[in-house]
Amino acid sequence: MRLRIPGRPPAEPERPGAREDDVSEPEPRASAPAPTFQRADRMRSASRTLALASAQLLLIAAALVLIGYVLGKLWAILLPIVLGLLIATVLWPLTRFLRNHGWPPALAAVTVLVAFLAALGGLVAAIAPQVADQVTELADAATAALQDVQEWLSGPPFNLQEGQFDDAVDSVIDSIQGNAQNIASYALTGASAVGNGLITLVLALVLVFFFLKDGPRWVPWLAAQTGPRAAPHVAALSYKTWATLSEFIRQQALVGFIDAFFIGIGLWILGVPLMIPLAVLTFFGAFIPIIGAFVAGAFAVLIALVSNGFTTALIVLGIVILVQQIEGNVLQPIIQGRGFNLHAAVVILAVTAGSSLAGIIGAFLAVPVAALIAVIYRYVRDEFDGKSPEVFDDGTRAKLADDEEGTTVVREQVAPAEEPDA
């Protein structure tokens, strides 16, 4: 029996086998915090949100695929419409001038369209004789350049024998002859594509006439198909997209003219053949930003190399680089400002995607389409932010008005309380 000393707590019973030098080890601890009851609820909420977002993303992707499929099936109809709209943006200022001076809409549209076709015909008539006269000289120069390449390959460091070079040429000829049937089918496909292109061009020109004649009626008709609340947005967005498209065409035409003028002068001073065709190619290449300028410059350097030699080709390359640097760093910021706000990477990706989907036409239409998508996105974004993008810079808003002659779009002044925040 153990005695208990008053004021002292009772001693703990000894554990079997325990010794006085034993030290109890601390319980293991985890670095993570202990779970709470809210964790499971929040996890279920996050999973539900993630599932809804994934379902929405899948639905949006499916809708985009479906829209792309439908547009692909309707491409033969959409292409003339798009080309007609682009040409109409170029011809509309002159048509509007004639209409404002009392010309009937149909007569003004026909006059401007005929003048446009006459200008194109005159340009082709001016280029064709020069190309026909100098193509023989270029062919002879190319033959001489090929002989120079053969002599260069025969020397160090390649040291190719003449027979090896001839064998390579014969191998290429045999390959061409062996694939003659495929080449013929490709030629037939190309001829068919040319025929389809001519039909598309004729249809686009017919649509240009109607766009110039009846174009101002489009916005009232389209806005009238919607409700009273949506009509101002439809009208404002139509005006914004048309203004963006027109501004793009005018700016690229001015930039292309400046590039073609200075590069053409350089080719003329250096005596490079096909100066006018190369200048025209440079002008039209400006409508495919970045990529078009590169291709047009490469053609100019190649013809200078074949016709005038390596030194002239280097000078032409320097002129092309200088003009394009001035264009990209000086002209583009001054002319375009921040109107489009499209990054160069976006432009390159748009041109690449357009060319892969629809060839040259796709590359030509890629940047205008990207600019229009950007306009629509910014309009929707500003609407979500409550900035009232349907209100124009002069403080007015589009509104439908109906009278005995039909529906038209008028401007109404927005009350100060309705104006967007600064």
Automatic annotation (TrEMBL):
Signal peptide: none annotated. It comes from the Bacteria. It is found in: Cell membrane. One of its GO terms (biological process) is transmembrane transport. The chain crosses the membrane at residues 49-69, 75-94, 106-128, 193-212, 253-270, 276-295, 302-324, 344-377. Keywords: Cell membrane, Membrane, Transmembrane, Transmembrane helix, Transport. Residues 11-21 have a biased composition (Basic and acidic residues). InterPro entries: AI-2E-like (IPR002549). It is a multi-pass membrane protein. GO terms for cellular component: plasma membrane. Residues 1-41, 402-422 are annotated as: Disordered. Its main location: membrane. It holds the Pfam family AI-2E_transport. Belongs to the autoinducer-2 exporter (AI-2E) (TC 2.A.86) family. PANTHER family: PERMEASE PERM-RELATED, TRANSMEMBRANE PROTEIN. This is Predicted PurR-regulated permease PerM. It comes from Blastococcus tunisiensis.
